[in-house]
């Protein structure tokens, strides 16, 4: 960041309240607890003004907590204030050895982290209204699909015996709720399609993404949400890292020397969808099927090849979005 901040405010987010701690030049200005509500957050902003803190020179830092932090993010954004959201894992890996835990202590640690790593700050930007609605509907879709899979898997396990009457009874027990869930899933899919169709920008991006062989609408939609309409990342490699399909080497001295492997720090849902895309595209005659067969003949491991194909798919989608043209194998997309 090029902006010079003079005050660093860590906010620990809970469902009902927010703990805050303000640091300025290694000294604490104020700390306390406020309600996680519109009135509480507005009162907090007024308190900072009363402390003669220049809000335009403040950098706020909070841990990403999903829905619990949305009110805070929205209000700070409405005031035009700079907010930095970090994941719990990022904090853990960069905060050194820590003992003990409490909300006030966490707020201080956030403020201290904010001050020490201000040059690495990535300011939070609100998603478009359509993209935010799309994200929440998509999350709900995953939850419904998970419930359907759970019921069907449970039924399959319970009906392994030879008793046909019991099978029919067990099937009847979940017939109504399973049918309702499947109906809800279909209705939700229609709503998602309608939301994208009404948004010219997202609809164009979806069309470009699905022009890549192997990328279906579900995966394209997941990519749109994960990348905030392909605005969250600067290049395809960053998206591939986020999806967990980029192998990294692990070497140190003479004792640690393992093959390059992908990291578990990834969006596992997106990674799973890309894996299904890769498995699907190699079943169809074409460039990627030829690539897969050639690498198998060379003795490469199957999963390593599939991972390379997942990476290729991401680069192709990104190139199409960047250039604004549908995929065409005769067109030389730059994969940067």
UniProtKB/TrEMBL annotation:
Residues 9-155 form the Transposase IS110-like N-terminal domain. Pfam families: DEDD_Tnp_IS110, Transposase_20. Signal peptide: none annotated. The keyword Coiled coil applies. Keywords: Coiled coil. Residues 141-198 form a coiled coil. The keyword Zinc-finger does not apply. Residues 207-292 form the Transposase IS116/IS110/IS902 C-terminal domain. PANTHER family: PUTATIVE TRANSPOSASE FOR IS117-RELATED, TRANSPOSASE FOR INSERTION SEQUENCE ELEMENT IS1111A. NCBIfam families: transpos_IS110 (NF033542). This is IS110 family transposase. It comes from Algivirga pacifica.
């Amino acid at each position: 960041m090029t902006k010079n901040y003079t005050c660093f405010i860590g906010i620990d987010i809970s469902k009902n309240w927010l703990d805050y701690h303000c640091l300025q030049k290694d000294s604490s200005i104020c700390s306390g607890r406020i309600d996680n509500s519109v009135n509480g957050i507005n009162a907090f902003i007024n308190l900072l003004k009363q402390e003669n803190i220049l809000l335009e020179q403040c950098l706020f830092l909070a841990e990403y907590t999903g829905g619990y932090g949305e009110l805070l993010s929205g209000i700070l954004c409405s005031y035009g204030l700079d907010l930095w959201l970090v994941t719990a894992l990022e904090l853990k890996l960069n905060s050194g050895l820590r003992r003990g835990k409490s909300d006030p202590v966490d707020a201080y640690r956030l403020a201290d982290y904010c001050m020490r790593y201000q040059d690495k700050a990535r300011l939070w930007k609100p998603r478009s209204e359509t993209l935010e609605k799309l994200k929440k509907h998509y999350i709900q879709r995953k939850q419904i699909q998970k419930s359907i899979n759970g019921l069907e898997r449970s039924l399959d396990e319970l009906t392994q015996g030879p008793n046909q009457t019991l099978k029919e009874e067990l099937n009847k027990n979940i017939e109504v709720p399973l049918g309702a869930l499947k109906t809800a899933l279909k209705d939700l899919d229609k709503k998602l399609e309608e939301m994208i169709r009404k948004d010219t920008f997202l609809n164009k991006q979806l069309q470009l993404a699905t022009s890549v062989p192997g990328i279906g609408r579900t995966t394209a939609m997941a990519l749109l949400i994960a990348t905030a309409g392909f605005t969250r990342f600067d290049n395809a490699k960053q998206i591939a890292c986020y999806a967990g399909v980029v192998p990294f080497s692990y070497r140190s001295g003479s004792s640690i020397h393992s093959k390059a492997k992908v990291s578990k720090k990834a969006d596992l849902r997106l990674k799973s969808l890309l894996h299904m895309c890769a498995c699907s595209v190699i079943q169809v005659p074409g460039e990627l099927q030829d690539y897969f067969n050639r690498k198998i003949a060379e003795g490469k491991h199957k999963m390593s090849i599939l991972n390379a194909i997942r990476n290729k798919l991401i680069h192709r989608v990104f190139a199409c979005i960047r250039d604004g043209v549908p995929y065409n194998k005769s067109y030389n997309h730059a994969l940067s």
